[in-house]
Specification:
- The chain is 55% helix and 6% strand.
- The chain is mainly alpha-helical and 341 residues long.
- The chain folds into two domains: 5-191 and 307-336, HUPs (Rossmann fold, 3-Layer(aba) Sandwich); 225-303, Tyrosyl-Transfer RNA Synthetase (Orthogonal Bundle), CATH 1.10.240.
- Strands 3-2-1-4 form a four-stranded parallel beta sheet, with helices on both faces.
- Helix 11 (251-264) crosses helix 13.
- It is globular and about 70 Å long.
- 40% of the residues are buried.
- Bound molecules: adenosine-5'-tetraphosphate.
- The site of adenosine-5'-tetraphosphate has 22 residues, from helix 1.
- The site of adenosine-5'-tetraphosphate (AQP) has 22 residues, from helix 1.
């Protein structure tokens, strides 16, 4: 019996933020620590997804390797026998399976994706790859029979599409793929990490995003810890004068509560209770700012201990091993659709 596979990745199109760290990287590290041996973890580096939107192409190769250093500095154990780390483009089966899946996905299904509509609306010329993003994501997941894909709410539609494709192809060709768990089951599985969405410190109605220019609202993992602390202390709040969790009326305060809960690894409700009755926003900001400063200081010190050479060496070894798993699944699909014996 194979272990259930958990699969996750962070694009290297721009420098990762505290949002990526608290929403995606740290939850995976914690999952590895608490459930070692129960699951197969695939923490991959989606460099092909990184070029679906314009990026600094000269930096991309190094940024991708750097994302592995970031996982390591966050505490991911790379010598764990049940963890694989690999670059998407180094496993050609991802691209090859994408093409086959494309032949079974309808144009209308891709065109109605909210992320495509939102991202394409911001660009004057829209690449086909942006439309096809979910097909590549489907290949990432289905190649390894992943059941759990811890992603944010913004990826929900894509995940549902992946399930539809897997079910469609299984119906036509027999049991080709493991169908990833439903969104509800993904959320149950995520536990404390469910729905973590760190907001901009300046514009807390918006998500903190690595590719949106919002320096005062965004904390990059490379920010000087003292400057990061100052950004939290200057965070936008409101004039209500009481600390509650309500993203509609108090998005800034709610964001600070979420940052505290994520860093302390506590359920959000517990942190909300701890601050109930407190009216000083300065106290709340100070608590969050101290935690952010300490987190970045510790993270950056650990980052220095894991060089790019170490990262490259680790990736090459893992990629060698992973390639065989991916190719076996690709061959099965190729045979089913009649392009291999
Ligand atoms: N603000 C956030 N709070 C919580 N989780 C977040 N993630 C991203 N931003 C936040 C999670 O990080 C993972 C990797 O995301 P990605 O790099 O594949 O792309 P993304 O979701 O589009 O992330 P960004 O930072 O918003 O990137 P850009 O600006 O390039 O589009 C995902 O699991 C995501 O949920």
């Amino acid at each position: 019996m194979h272990k259930p596979v958990i699969l996750t990745g962070v694009r290297s199109n721009a420098e990762p933020t505290l949002g990526n760290y608290l929403g995606a990287i740290l939850p995976l590290v914690r999952l590895q620590a608490t459930h070692a041996g129960e699951y197969q973890i695939n923490a991959f580096l989606p460099d092909l997804h990184s070029i679906t939107t314009p990026t600094d192409y000269k930096q991309l190769y190094q940024s991708t390797i750097n994302n592995l250093r970031i996982y390591a500095a966050a505490g991911l154990k790379l010598d764990d026998p049940n963890t694989n780390v690999y670059r998407q483009s180094y496993i050609p089966a991802h691209s090859e399976l994408t093409w086959i899946l494309d032949c079974f996905i309808y144009y209308g299904e891709l065109a109605r994706m909210t992320q495509f509509k939102e991202k394409s609306a911001k660009q004057t010329s829209v690449s086909v790859s942006l439309l096809n993003y979910p097909a590549l994501m489907a290949a990432d997941i289905l190649l390894y029979d992943a059941s759990y894909v811890p992603v944010g709410e913004d990826q929900r539609q894509h995940l549902e599409l992946v399930r539809d494709i897997a079910i469609r192809m299984n119906n036509q060709f027999g049991e080709l793929f493991v169908v990833p768990e439903s969104w509800e089951n993904q959320m149950k599985f995520n536990g404390n990490g469910a729905g973590v969405r760190i907001r901009s410190l300046k514009h807390p109605s918006q998500k903190m995003s690595k590719s949106i220019a919002d320096p005062a609202g965004t904390i990059l993992l490379s920010d000087d810890p003292k400057e990061a602390k100052a950004k939290v202390l200057a965070a936008t709040t409101d004039s209500l004068g009481s600390i509650n969790l309500n993203y509609e009326t108090q998005p800034g305060v709610s964001n600070l509560l979420q940052i505290i809960a994520s860093i302390q690894n506590k359920p959000l409700n517990e942190v909300v209770s701890e601050w109930k009755g407190e009216s000083s926003y300065a106290k709340l900001k100070n608590a969050a700012a101290d935690l952010v400063e300490a987190t970045l200081s510790e993270f950056q010190a650990k980052l220095l201990q894991f060089s790019s050479e170490d990262a490259l060496d680790t990736l090459s070894k893992h990629e060698e091993a992973v390639r065989g798993i991916a190719e076996a699944k690709l061959n099965k699909v190729q045979s089913s659709v009649g392009i291999r014996p």
